[in-house]
Amino acid sequence: MVSPPHEAMHRIFQHDPGLFSRVSRYLGVDIPRPTKAAVLPTDLTETRPVERRVDTLLRFETEAEGPFLLAIESQGKRDVEKPASWAYYTAYLWTKYRLPTALLVVCQDHATAAWAQRAVSSGPPQLPTLTLRPVVAGPHNMPVITDPEEARADLVLASLAAITHAAEPCVDAILKALSTALRDAPEDIADPIVEFTAQGLGKYPAKHVWRNLVAVDLSFYKSYLVEEIREEARAEARAEGRAEDVLLVLEQRGLDISDAVRSRVTECSDPEVLRSWLARAVTVPKAEEIFEDE
User: What is the distance in angstroms between the CA of the first residue and the CA of the last residue of the chain?
Assistant: First the structure.
């Protein structure tokens, strides 16, 4: 199943194709600002029944170097099958469009980024024939944008910075700068940034930081997405409150609460389960028995 971070890491370039020229300086390459950019179909299926799709495919027009294609892939972990697939994508696109074709791989952790940026050849060492050299965007080279003014100058880049640093300690500061910058942005500009950032953070703990920031710093927005994120934040707060109630009842009754019981209660986010535990906490002789029949 395709995950939200996977979608956000490449669709953000569809949202703003010019982002790649701004990102390129962090990748060690000099890509001129395009005079024109277009999102192309991603279906690379051949006539035989084998479906191949690149995540995002863009065509750029430049004054100095002419047109070129950029295939963008989101990669969440190492996959020994991927280099061969990427080589196929670039060779096929080069053949189909007769245009220079580059590959950008977007990652969220250092190990995957280091693996993805290795050059891989299709032939034996003495006959490399076709060599794949992707450029990689990840926590190792994307900017750490913690200044709201810098974030305001390029909201999309700031969102990508948050996504690629989702597992890094600096992500909280990036998210705070981004939410501050978005206060002044029109709703039609802010909404997709809020969405990409929420999707890109996936299951990382930073998603809770972002949802809280959206609920507080962007409280004046009324879009469906912002309301959904805000409601999730409120639901999490209600669950945390109910978990505290369960533990408080057990403590007031003088029952011994082990670390295992405390962890299980505080980590539960299901309000109905917490409600049943709270009801049992009133009468059980031992704290562990609130989990009875589960």
Answer: 29
